[in-house]
Amino acid sequence: MRTVQQILDYKGHDVWHIDPDAMVLDAIGEMKTRDVGALAVTEGAKLVGLISERDYARGVALEGRSSRDTRVRDVMQSELPTVSPTTDVETCMALMTRYRTRHLPVLRGDEMVGLLSIGDLVAAIIADQQSTIEHLEQYIATG
Ligand SMILES: NC(=O)c1ccc[n+]([C@@H]2O[C@H](COP(=O)([O-])OP(=O)(O)OC[C@H]3O[C@@H](n4cnc5c(N)ncnc54)[C@H](O)[C@@H]3O)[C@@H](O)[C@H]2O)c1
């Protein structure tokens, strides 16, 4: 089973983030610029939350609020699961299911060293399965 570290080595350690006092409109704009569905919310180097497209849809659009006048801190998720570089993919999937989230910040101690999405985990699982199939095909062919 792959670990978070192995996925980060492949996808990279950059984390796109935003300040909790920024406006939601700026968060959505940054998500578009980076072509991602969520941003880590940070105060200095400290992770304080996560804001996703879902938080915008439910916390702003559905409530009839304006993204120009609503601050990130007012709609972000502040109770969120995090993982470490040594966490395995299966544990990440279980956390996403339990907390109904599609993104997991990766912390080494207090330092944020990456962020994984559900797509990263699905891609890792498919790659593992593909590798197992290829090994079995080779075993059958040479056996
Ligand atoms: N082929 C792949 O390896 C792969 C990996 C991930 C996603 N995808 C595709 O992208 C689409 C959307 O993906 P999603 O729903 O998983 O989420 P997403 O759009 O939020 O994430 C897309 C990619 O951006 C990264 N990302 C997201 N937010 C980030 C942030 N704040 N900082 C740094 N990196 C960040 C994710 O880790 C992921 O690699 C889907 O169609 C999915 O299939 C493909």
List the SSEs and their pairings.
Blueprint: H1 4-11, E1 17-18, H2 24-34, E2 38-43, E3 46-52, H3 53-61, H4 72-75, H5 89-99, E4 103-108, E5 111-117, H6 118-142
Parallel strand pairs: 1-2
Antiparallel strand pairs: 2-3, 4-5
Helix pairs in contact: 5-6
Bound molecules: nicotinamide-adenine-dinucleotide (NAD).
Give every kind of bound small molecule, once each. Answer: nicotinamide-adenine-dinucleotide
- Strand coverage percent: 15-25%
> Which blocks of ≥5 consecutive residues have pLDDT under 50?
none
Q: Summarize the main sheet.
A: 3 strands, mixed
How many β-strand stretches? 5
Q: How are helices and strands ordered from N to C?
A: HEHEEHHHEEH
Classification by helices and strands: alpha+beta
Number of helices: 6
Mean pLDDT: 95
CATH class wording: Alpha Beta
CATH architecture: Roll
**CATH topology assignment:** CBS-domain
**What is the total number of structural domains?**
1
Strands of the largest sheet, in order across it? 1-2-3
Shape: elongated
Radius of gyration, taken over Cα atoms and rounded to an integer in Å = 18 Å
Gap between N and C termini, in Å? 26 Å
The helical percent reads 40-55%
Q: So, the CATH homologous superfamily?
A: CBS-domain
Structure description:
The protein has a single domain (4-142), classed as CBS-domain (Roll), CATH 3.10.580.10. It is 48% helix and 20% strand. It has helices at residues 4-11, 24-34, 53-61, 72-75, 89-99, 118-142, and strands spanning 17-18, 38-43, 46-52, 103-108, 111-117. Nicotinamide-adenine-dinucleotide is lined by residues 11, 14-16, 36-40, 102-103, 115-120, 123.
